Amino acid sequence: MSKATLLKNGWIVDGTDSPRWQGDILLAGERIVALAKTGEIDAATLDAYGPVESIDCTGRVVAPGFIDVHTHDDAAVLDDPGMLPKLSQGVTTVIVGNCGISLAPVVTEVPAAPLSLLGRLQFRHASMAEYAQSVDAATPAVNVAALMGHTALRMRHISDLRHAATQAERDAMAADMQEAMDAGALGLSSGIFYAEAYAADMPELVSVATVAARNGGVYATHIRDELAGILPALQEAAATAKQSGLPLVLSHHKCAGPANWGRTKETLPLIEEMAKGQEIAMDVYPYTAGSTVLREDLVDGIIDILITGSQPHPEMGGRYLADIAKEWGVTQQEAALRLKPGGACYFQMREDDVDRVVSHPLSMIGSDGLPHDERPHPRLWGAFPRVLASYWREKGLLRLEQAVHKMTGMSARRFRMGERGVLRAGFMADVVVFDPEVVQDKATFESPKQFSAGIEKVWVNGVLSYTAEQRATGQRAGRFVRRGAAQAA
Ligand code: ZN
Predict the structure, then answer these.
(1) CA distance linking residue 444 with residue 447, whole number of Å
(2) Best CA proximity match to 210, nearest among 202, 200, 221
(3) Do 128 and 148 meet the contact criterion of CB atoms below 8 Å apart?
(4) Residue 117 gets which letter from DSSP?
(5) Contact 191, 147 (CB under 8 A)
(6) Could you tell me how far CA 5 lies from the centroid of its own chain?
(7) Could you tell me which CATH number the domain at 66-288+349-414 has?
(8) How far are the Cα atoms of 219, 311, 471 from residue 365, in angstroms, in the given order?
(9) Could you tell me the CA-to-CA distances from 148 to 123, 186, 321, 381 in Å, in that order?
């Protein structure tokens, strides 16, 4: 057990969106054990925890460790358990299994798209319980909570992905979903935008989501269409969640494609309206470019597309598709076909739309970073500090407390993560200390693997895991985090 640590005289931003206050916080073992105004934790309490190391946090913010609600770190936490891209941002928990894509329950040596977004090496878990065991055995530097992916369930159980599941296939998928919930999964994710899941109909989705609902889970979805057909796609997601009886999280909400720019003025009011009758939230990353596998149907000849990696042409990583097409003397679509399989960043959003979503009260922050890309979208290394630097400090679109809330307390509450995401006595000691004047993302599209500035110290389950001077401390204390009870707001 690590000795007790007293973080003294910092600005406590507790994750609940209540106003910051100046005070001390005592960590002992894996928990937060006391908080009080500066100097007011009494001697008896301090004595009770034995030798206490004091750290002066004057002028610094002390906040709950950030929760990255939208990740594809499923395999990364096993392959690269140091998890520096996340830990260095102050992230202490990642939610994996988003967009319908999860390792469990798929066992294969040749994962097909879109599962291959997770790399190729770790498809060896026939159940969520086996995945949880792998996480605990790897002891990643951050905690890991998991969604079961609907596309993964389809790939395991549906013989012809061009069709909706038969009754027998639905039953098989539902049985795996039950296993995942028994193992502590947070719920179900889907990615019916992707061809491999596009044929899923309402009965198929509801049959699986109902199992998550019965067990207190949530439903996170990458909706069918984020372009022209976004409104019916949002309605479909809400109807699926409502019929199944569980809370909905709309993944990486965006209005993609130039023809759709400005339409968050339609989507956000629709989401607000639907949220009057059911629980709905969304996640968002603070950039105008998205990133996913390379797809020729997303090539419109208008938006910029940056290649993040290509299996047949790895030398083209980091170059723009338009330049490659010109060099090859072909159309951009043809160039995309030749570069596949690969990944790309699509500059498909407009800043005012992103601003509206990031500052919306129903949104929380998820990076959607892709750790297996050679030259990843900078959100992998920078999303959380960027919210603080751009959205709070520079643009003033969020209050500091609100920005932190969207990365901590709201995330834990929406995803039913139990005693995390808030600085409260008795809660788990996932804590970040940062310099509010300095905190800044450094990762760019040109140079995407960069440490952020201003993240000074990070504790995971009470263990000091990262410092600005030392980077990784060498102590890794993450674990598989099981679904908890819903937290009071
Ligand atoms: Zn997605």
Answers:
(1) 5
(2) 202
(3) yes
(4) G
(5) no
(6) 29
(7) 3.20.20.140
(8) 17, 31, 23
(9) 14, 8, 34, 25
Determine the average pLDDT of the residues in 278-286: 98
Q: Is CATH 3.40.50.11810 what the domain over 4-64+424-472 is classified as, yes or no? A: no
Domain 292-346: give its CATH superfamily.
D-aminoacylase. Domain 3 (3.30.1490.130)
For the residues 431-449, what does the mean pLDDT come to? 97
Same-fold call for 4-64+424-472 versus 66-288+349-414? no
> How far apart are the C-alpha atoms of 212 and 188, rounded to whole Å?
6
Q: How far is the CA of 100 from the centre of ligand 1 (A)?
A: 8
Compute the distance from residue 300 Cα to the ligand 1 centre, in Å: 19
Q: Which of the four pLDDT bands, split at 50, 70 and 90, describes residue 485?
A: low
Mean pLDDT of 444-473: 97
- Tell me how far the alpha carbon of residue 132 lies from the centroid of ligand 1, in angstroms: 22
- Residue pair 481/93 in contact (Cβ under 8 Å)? The answer is yes
Q: How far apart are CA 28 and CA 7, in angstroms?
A: 11
Cα(433)–Cα(479) distance, rounded to whole angstroms? 21
Domains of the chain, by residue range, sit at: 4-64+424-472, 66-288+349-414, 292-346
- For 72-80, what is the mean pLDDT? 98
From CA 371, how far away is CA 386, in angstroms rounded?
Answer: 18
Q: Please give the distance, rounded to the nearest whole angstrom, from the Cα atom of residue 464 to the centre of ligand 1.
A: 32
Nearest by Cα to 145 from 65, 208, 244, 70: 70
Helix (H) or strand (E) segment spanning residue 12: strand 4-12
Task: Quote the ligand 1 centre to 198 CA distance (angstroms).
Answer: 13
Distance 241 CA to ligand 1 centre (A): 17
Helix (H, G, I), strand (E, B) or coil at 393: helix
Per the DSSP assignment, residues forming a β-bridge with 216 are none
| Contact predicate 246/213, CB 8 Å | yes
- In this model, does residue 51 exceed pLDDT 60? yes
Residue 23: burial class (beta carbons within 10 Å; 0-12, 13-18, 19+): buried
**Cα(368) to centroid of ligand 1, in Å?**
7
Burial 161-181, CB ≥16 within 10 A → b, else e: beebbeeebbebbbebbbbbb
Other CB atoms within a 10 A radius of the CB of residue 140 amount to: 26
The whole-chain average pLDDT of the chain stands at 96
Tokens describing residue 63: 């906040």
**3-class secondary-structure state, position 475:** coil
